[in-house]
Amino acid sequence: MAMERDLRRALENEEFELYYQPQIRLHDQQVIGMEALIRWRHPEKGMVSPSLFIPVAEQTGMIIPINEWVIRTACEQTKQLLDRFPDLSVSINLSPYEFESRRFVDKLARLLADAGLPPHHLDLEITERMTMDTERALDILSKLKGLGVTISMDDFGTGYSSLSYLTDLPIDRLKIDRSFVQHIQGKKDVILPAIIRLGHNIGVKVLAEGVETETEAAYLQGKRCDEAQGYYFSPPLPYDELVRFLNEQR
Ligand code: G
Ligand code: G
Ligand code: MN
Ligand code: NA
User: Fold this and answer.
1) Residues 6+ apart with CB under 8 A from 239
2) For ligand 2, is residue 230 a contact (CB within 6 Å)?
3) What is the pLDDT of residues 84-126, one digit of tens each?
4) Is the pTM of this model over 0.80?
5) Is 28 in a helix, a strand, or coil?
6) Whether residue 133 has pLDDT greater than 60
């Protein structure tokens, strides 16, 4: 497959780059971390969106070396920031393939050790879809938690699973999907406060994604949402610009 060859070459030629979107704690507006988002600077096509190549990478198995690169790079770059910003943590998006791989826990431990990043500075984003088999998810998640990393449930509210499983899973944070935030001014207003309360009732932090306006940020803070991420605070930034953003915040 042409795209698979392209992806392999992209890794070898260092065409991938990580962007980082800051995550803000609402009550004091402090940056508490950032989500790493991969970008592909294709020599002919320009910037290729991950929504185009991640599915191909997953089908071809190229997701394994690509995400190894993502984790290594995110850990190394975050490690470099800890001297100046000791409380930061970096979130990475896991794909179902690695989540289910028996070797992933060992690999993650090795990547953290290689980078010298204390594990509590790494957050793994999983989706509801990955936890449909609750027993299996419990087993994998408890091993990952055993390393000392944290777990976030990404795109929360868009999945198919029943809510009953949530209390059983050792997760640290719900990331509310941006589709709920976009409805703040509309009729679905009841959903957001309900999700925030649900998160707090099961003892996890709640982050709202896709916050684009001051009105949305203020509303969420009023509803006691813990954290937020979105264009209102910052788009995903190249590493150098992230460093600048962090320095300007202090
Ligand atoms: O940043 P952007 O909106 O273009 O990302 C599109 C999608 O690609 C998002 O759903 C995001 O979760 C996913 N994505 C971004 N970076 C990675 C990555 O490193 N690994 C995986 N598996 N998915 C990613
Ligand atoms: O699925 P995941 O949540 O990992 O995807 C994150 C994606 O959301 C990234 O591709 C990022 O570019 C995009 N994104 C980040 N902030 C905003 C925002 O405020 N509005 C919109 N529409 N998209 C956003
Ligand atoms: Mn995400
Ligand atoms: Na999301």
Assistant:
1) 18, 20, 77
2) yes
3) 999 999 999 999 988 888 899 999 999 999 999 999 999 999 9
4) yes
5) coil
6) yes
> Which residues share a beta bridge with 24?
31, 228
Extents of the domains making up the chain: 2-249
Q: Which-ligand-closest: CA of 35?
A: 3
Q: Which CATH superfamily is domain 2-249 in?
A: EAL domain (3.20.20.450)
Residue 184 is given by DSSP the state: T
At 243, is the pLDDT very low, low, confident or very high (cuts 50, 70, 90)? very high
Biggest distance spanned by C-alpha atoms of the chain: 51
Question: Which amino acid makes up residue 23?
Answer: Q
Indicate which residue's Cα is closest to atom 10 of ligand 2.
37
Q: CA-CA distances (angstroms) from residue 62 to 3, 73, 92, 97, 191?
A: 10, 17, 17, 10, 37
Please determine, for the modelled complex, whether the ipTM score is greater than 0.90: yes
Ligand 1 lined by 70 (C-beta under 6 Å) = yes
